[in-house]
Specification:
Blueprint (H helix, E strand, L loop, with lengths): L1 H19 L39 H13 L9 E4 L3 E4 L5 H13 L5 E2 L2 H11 L10 H10 L4 E9 L4 E9 L5 E9 L1
Parallel strand pairs: 1-3, 1-4, 2-4
Antiparallel strand pairs: 4-5, 5-6
Length: 191
């Protein structure tokens, strides 16, 4: 209570100091608005709109079909098992069409008729339940394995695109969902 009283005394002293000095407040001058004078208009050049960066179109099927062929022929891969194909991780300095690339992988592996694929709506619901974003660009092997365990898949196919605009490649790894062991790995350049 004493501190509050001391604080109030200090505040009153400080407020009173400005009235003791006898200074008058600065005068307020009102300025009437004037009519704007017409200035000569100069023709302005039209603004140039910057062009969007060109998107590199990729035929994803040509990049992933050779890898899908290698995958189904890998030793130790059992036919008829459940496979989760996770979305592609982008390790490049460019924007890629990750959904189109993932769809191309799904089509290439599905055409081999070796695995039972986890439907994409089940994958989307599992991602939502685990708090993973559909557009997760920070896909990790541990997230992919956790997702595969959640949907009770036997295998998970983890894919990474690396490189730059001039030269990039796709790498795929088939991992056991229960052990996390890499059973097969392959790379292919992206044209």
């Amino acid at each position: 209570m004493r501190r509050i009283f001391q604080l109030m005394v200090v505040i009153f002293l400080l407020v009173g100091c400005s009235s003791i000095t006898g200074k008058k407040p600065a005068p307020v001058i009102t300025i009437e608005p004037t009519e704007p004078t017409e200035q000569p208009t100069t023709p302005t050049s039209p603004e140039t709109v910057p062009q969007l960066p060109k998107v590199k179109t990729v035929d994803w099927s040509t990049a992933v079909i050779p890898l899908a062929n290698q995958l189904v022929q890998a030793p130790g891969v059992e036919s008829g098992k459940v496979l989760l194909i996770d979305s592609i991780k982008n390790n490049t300095n460019m924007a890629i069409q990750s959904m189109q690339a993932t769809d191309a992988i799904i089509d290439a592996v599905n055409n081999q008729n070796v695995f039972k694929l986890v439907p994409q709506d089940v994958v989307a619901n599992a991602r939502k339940a685990l708090g993973l974003s559909q557009e997760d660009s920070l896909v990790t092997r541990s997230k992919a394995i956790g997702l595969a365990r959640y949907v009770q898949a036997d295998y998970v196919l983890y894919s990474v695109i690396s490189g730059n605009q001039q030269q990039s490649e796709i790498e795929m790894q088939l991992m056991g969902a229960q052990t996390g062991e890499i059973l097969w790995s392959g790379t292919n350049p992206i044209e």
